[in-house]
Amino acid sequence: QVQLVESGGGMVQAGGSLRLSCAASGRFFNYDNIGWFRQAPGKEREFVAAITWTGGNTYSATSTDSVKGRFTTWRDNAKNMVYLQMNSLKPEDTAVYYCARLRLGGDRGKSESYDYWGQGTQVTVSS
User: Fold this and answer.
1) Which residues lie closer than 8 Å to 112 by C-beta, 6 or more apart?
2) Residue 86, class by beta-carbon neighbours within 10 Å (0-12 exposed, 13-18 middle, 19+ buried)?
3) Residue 17 to residues 6, 104, 109, 115, 126: CA-CA distances in angstroms?
4) Kind and range of the H or E run holding 9
5) Which end of the chain is more exposed for a tag (fewer CB within 10 A), N or C?
6) Pick the residue with more confidence: 68 or 92?
7) Each residue's pLDDT tens digit, 14-64
8) Whether 77 contacts 1, CB under 8 Å
9) In 3-state terms, what secondary structure has residue 91?
10) pLDDT at 65
11) Strand duo 57-59 + 46-51: pairing
């Protein structure tokens, strides 16, 4: 069993920054690949970034508003934490952000490949 809890969301002006945290509990966290997704009202859940258990990361480059170069994800396995630093935020980044655990062998870019999800944290970027 894995439990994930996001925090750090809030309201920020365009151009600002936020750091999201994902606290994990579970015996095998250090060997889990973790993904970040977001979901805006009326839209499908969208892949944002992922990080492997060794620290290798992937960022969405397919969305209309690519996060690569603005968002950074890393992890601290000693603390069972994963982070998402979001800089140069835009109103289009407004969404509920989730962290999730990737199933073994799953496609990191697809939400159906993840089996455990946090409850989400709201990020609102005003213009």
Assistant:
1) none
2) buried
3) 16, 32, 24, 29, 12
4) none
5) N
6) 92
7) 999 999 999 998 776 778 899 999 999 999 999 999 998 887 777 765 444
8) no
9) helix
10) 57
11) antiparallel
Position 68 scores a pLDDT of 79
Looking at the chain, the whole-number percentage of residues with pLDDT higher than 90 is 68
Question: With contact defined as beta carbons under 8 Å apart, do 115 and 1 qualify?
Answer: no
Is residue 37 within 8 Å of 97, Cβ to Cβ? yes
User: What is the pLDDT, as a whole number, of residue 102?
Assistant: 93
**DSSP assignments along 93-115, one per residue:** G-EEEEEEEEPTT--TT-GGGEE
Could you tell me where the beta strands, DSSP code E, fall in the chain?
3-7, 10-13, 18-25, 34-39, 46-51, 57-59, 71-76, 81-86, 95-102, 114-117, 121-126
For residue 64, what pLDDT is reported?
43
